[in-house]
Amino acid sequence: MVACVRAALGLSSMEGVRWAFPCAAWRPSRAEWLSAARCVQPEEKDRIGQFVFARDAKAAMVGRLLMRKLIAEKLNIPWNKIVLQRTSKGKPILVNDSFSTYPDFNFNISHQGDYAVLAAEPKVQVGIDIMKTTLPGRSSISEFFRIMNRQFTETEWKTIKTSEDEWTQLDTFYRHWALKESFLKAIGVGIGFKLQRIEFNISPLHLEVGKVYRQTNMLLDGEEEEDWIFEESRLDEYHHIAVALKKPDGLGPQNLQVLSQDHPEFTFLTFEDLVASALPLTLEDSSYWDNFCSKQEEPHRSSTSL
């Protein structure tokens, strides 16, 4: 989900934010789940309750809490005064009337695999995506690549298949996928965009856990995009994160030079961190816990051995 906070113009000095929450490892207690449900808007709570699997419900809940925490703590809007709505394309936006309509502070969230993540920047267009390297469920890696062939360029496939080790090939595949998704989310498009229009030259080939890299560049329709920076990191040996950053129109190249000197690392949050500034919006609903407990954690899937 991409979102822009409509905030006052004094945010230009605000630093970027990078947060991560371990959704898969979170086993909410009754008190935690009901407390979380009270701290999101009623329609958000209802939407989260409709997920079939607990894994997806947790990720969606954390995503909403991450957004509200960001707005409350970075924009100083009281938690219970935050009003989030969705555009016709499903993009969440802040609609508090007392703030300027200039889209000065941009944020984006993503959840996949074991984590939910958030990236936010003042005056910079931002998109984030996280991908977990996992074996294909019902096919071999080579068959999976055949099915996905049209999603990458010939150059990207050559990079992906550089290693003789199939797991490394798969890992490089998901790294490319995260990069492409981060760009699409930053520009606000989805289905219908031909992914072969964008080509990534990844650098370095190997990313170490805990470090932030900005050497990768992108070509759009064969032309290098100099206004974009792609920030890459690994939360662990399985999870790639890509953050796409674009300077606003009208700003000179020096702005990207300043941005490129900043390498914010992801801060891992606990549940206590998520709700540190939270205020309840609704009354406690004990049936919401019963609904959550009735959910299977995740769908069963078969995996193919290497």
Please count the helical segments.
Answer: 9
| Strand percent estimate | 15-25%
Quote the distance from N terminus to C terminus: 34 Å
The helix-strand sequence is EEHHHEEEEEHHHEEEEEEHEHH
Mean of all residue-level pLDDT scores: 87
Unreliable runs: 4-13, 98-103
Tell me the radius of gyration: 20 Å
Number of beta-strand segments: 14
Helix content: 25-40%
Q: Choose one word for the global shape.
A: globular
Largest sheet: 5 strands, mixed
Q: Could you give the order of strands across the largest sheet?
A: 1-5-6-2-14
Structural class: alpha+beta
Layout: helices, strands, pairs:
Layout: E1 2-5, E2 17-21, H1 30-38, H2 42-49, H3 54-74, E3 84-86, E4 92-94, E5 105-112, E6 115-122, E7 125-132, H4 141-147, H5 154-160, H6 166-187, E8 198-201, E9 212-213, E10 217-220, E11 223-224, E12 228-234, E13 239-246, H7 253-260, E14 267-268, H8 271-274, H9 286-293
Parallel strand pairs: 2-14
Antiparallel strand pairs: 1-5, 2-6, 3-4, 5-6, 7-13, 8-10, 9-12, 10-11, 12-13
Helix pairs in contact: 1-9, 2-3, 5-6
